[in-house]
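User: Structure please.
Assistant: Input sequence and predicted structure:
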Amino acid sequence: MGRIAQAFGIEDKPLLKAERSPRIMGDQFSSMYSYAAPSIVRNDAMSVPSLARCRSLICNTIASFPFNLYRNSTGEELGNPVWLDQPSVSQPRSVTIAWTVDSLFMFGVAYWEVTEVYAEDNRPARFQWVPNNRVTFNVNRTLTQIDAYFIDGFERPQSGIGSVVTFQSFDEGILARGASTIRAAIDTQEAARIAASTPMPTGVLKNSGADLPEKEVAGLLAAWKSSRMQRSTAYLTSTLSYDTIGFSPSEMLYTEAIQNLATEISRLCNVDAFYLSADANNSMTYSNLLDSRKQFVSLTLQPYISQIEDRLSMNDITANGNYVRFDLDHNFLRQEPLTELAILEKLLALELITKDQAMRMTELTPNGMAE
């Protein structure tokens, strides 16, 4: 038996599924989390509308932010390398980032494969996001360190083309920590679906006359079902009666249960329930909308933003002395135009910026035209 199998006394399996692993912290297993597979798969979780909404809010919003490269010593904005504007040659930057955040959100770890490197320093020049279910790895005898990564069963080198870049989250991912809540939401939706597809209450036909042969009973039940499916009323003879049993859909409180679980999922995803409410009050001014977005960024998006920024700023990817940041002010947190102009006016009056810098901050070219 292999080392992993020996440790757990189970059937020999040479590879350990990354998708079903405990959290990985700096290529080490965290003893905080159990060695168990999530009981919910991603496709099932995404069938819950409230969770799909949370996923879209988090992943798609972060994906809309462009990257910038800065010098650590001065904060000066540098020109972006090609990979920072488009990490993968086969898809737009926003798509790569959306699926990277999705992996962090769902599984607690995301993977990029290095597809090109710079000749002068062997740092990555292009990447490709890799779905979690394609990545496996071997760990050491004590289950504390990853020895090798595999993609589609093929071992990857430690560096250079074909190597794996890992992004670690702050927890084990929503499929592991939220399995019971997500399962409850799925089960409630399924119960509501069944109730909607069979609107008549469960019941029994009682015969107060002579017992009927089995074939006649089957025919009677079939005729009763067909009649109730086609019309809301039915005719019963003097010897037959219909008694309902169980609870009606309204008595089962499916709507209330679904709404309650939507609130629980919003807590699970750290997303304000306001964003999940279909009948939310949309009469927001620009000012409080901006405040709401700032809160959304600081409380919900910032963990994922920091995880990606910090990983891409590490020395094996970005040269020493430089760092990568998302440009949150580009559109999402941009001030109201009049407020922005008032700020620029004060900065110009204090000679803290030049006119050209002010024009760039408002995305104007030197001739005064919008870029």
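The first strand starts at residue 16 and ends at 17.
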